[in-house]
Specification:
The chain is mainly α and 176 residues long. The chain contains eight helices and three strands; from the N terminus they run αβααββααααα.
Length: 176
């Protein structure tokens, strides 16, 4: 997947300024796709110059005009074309796994300390995901409908964090 498709996905349902898109990106896609502020703004310029999105200017008092982006028909077509084609399975780039692989060169207490830090991060992420799941499950059936497929991405996140934490127990037991 490219950042281009992530932004088009967000614009498919709702127009927005670069700032709006950055906030939505972090809140909706940021759990499984990373992009910096600069990358998003750079991609918006490219998408606009490629005719995949359009931009209207909204005047603001005492500030520069606000650029609000909307998807064009060409953008919609590009998104549909991407959605209809299979994507490659992503490989994991996990620096901690490389460190563990070479862990025989480190003292076990150092590895255990870093593992503990990673466990805390994964536990917090799992807590965030479980909170989001409860919010979704509390919705009426009608309000759930537009979020059914995003909910499946949330479930993947929950299962991934739970699996990581189970694996960490095995590593911890070995290191002890």
């Amino acid at each position: 997947m490219s950042l281009k498709h992530a932004i088009l996905t967000l614009l498919e349902t709702e127009e927005g300024s670069g700032y709006d898109l950055l906030k939505r990106f972090k809140a909706r896609l940021g759990f499984f796709w990373n992009a910096s502020h600069q990358q998003i703004y750079s991609q918006l310029k490219t998408l606009h110059s490629d005719g995949l999105i359009d931009c209207t200017l909204e005047p603001q008092k005492g500030k520069p005009d606000r650029k609000v982006y909307q998807m064009t028909q060409a953008g919609h077509d590009a998104l549909i074309e991407w959605l209809e084609n299979p994507v490659k399975v992503d490989k994991v780039n996990d620096a901690f796994l490389v460190k563990l692989y070479a862990g025989h060169l480190l003292d076990k207490p150092k590895l255990k300390a870093e593992l503990a830090e990673h466990k805390e991060i994964h536990q917090r992420m799992l807590g965030t995901f479980l909170t989001l799941e409860q919010q979704y499950l509390a919705l009426s059936e009608t309000k759930k409908r537009p979020f059914e497929l995003p909910y499946l991405t949330l479930r993947r996140g929950i299962l991934g964090e739970q699996a990581w934490l189970e694996w960490a127990k095995e590593v911890e037991a070995f290191l002890n």
